[in-house]
Predict the 3D structure of the following.
Amino acid sequence: MDRELLRSLPKALLHDHLDGGLRVDTVLDLADELGYRGLPCTDAAGLTAWFDQGESGSLARYLEAFAHTVAVMQTAPALERVAYEAAVDLAADGVVYAELRYAPFLHVARGLSPEAVVEAVQAGLDRAHQESGIVTGTIVVALRHLRDSEDVARLGARFAGAGVIGFDLAGPELGNPADEHVTACRYARENGLGLTIHAGEADGPHSIWRARARCGAQRLGHGVRIIEDATVEDGEIVALGGVARVVLDHRVPLELCPTSNVDTGVCPDVARHPLGMLHRAGFALTLNTDNRLMSAVSLTDEFANAVEHHAFGPCDLEDVTVRAIEAGFGDWPARRGLIEKIVRPAYRAAREGT
């Protein structure tokens, strides 16, 4: 499948961080507007190269780049612009449904209220929808190493039905168990938000178990290290441990982010990422970008990698796309309409043309 066909195919994205997908020119513009002098480079080419965390080698180092994007996302106009540009950029890449996540309490350093942060982001996404037709929802993020997760859950719940559709735990996974935030997770679910938790990225299957069994996660952010609870022979999964069996049998969606996993040292390269064997074994995987700026990646890139390195064809890409939309937390009639009116016809045409 050629790249232009892959770009034109409708896609769905469940795991994309708003502060990880800025345009470099926008970072420079906003830094100038806000008087932020902390950027490591002040020219577009140099800053693009600096933000590319392909050689970071660890999650902790990878996350250091976010200090600069968060620093320029501290006013309502800046947040609206970033959200708008993120959505229209995704639409240009063929994404028809996207869930964008961010931590509202990271954007109050210049006096914005958390409510104003949410409203500004939603204003940008609404404008992008009007222009491009992309359907979006937002996931509010609490950070594992902080202790404001209940405040984040309450904030998200106030905007449930008004753009916010989910709650997530992110940040450093090692040493910060998800179940330290079980009250926030329960509150989010009891008040109408979907629950996804970063688990199985920097830590192993026991972290996935905590996210599912103790916190009730409906989806797993990354989840790639579920492969450590499986027996692999000749590139295929031949047996499963208890955690992996539950994830498979309960159809728990995995928000896989292959390029990001390589950047943070989880996998040596995309070709040796377990996405292919997980897909063939029947796991409910989805493909995602995580951080388009820091990983210098698009969803078309992730589709192309799946085709080139894991023998995905049109049927596999359709399965991944439909699964992602079905696993979404947004309005179901809108999501069902995307599947029936846009996704299925487009992939049918792609199959007939191959």
Notes: The chain has a mean pLDDT of 96. Strands lie at 11-17, 95-102, 135-143, 164-170, 194-199, 219-222, 230-233, 236-240, 254-256, 285-287. The chain has one domain: 3-352.
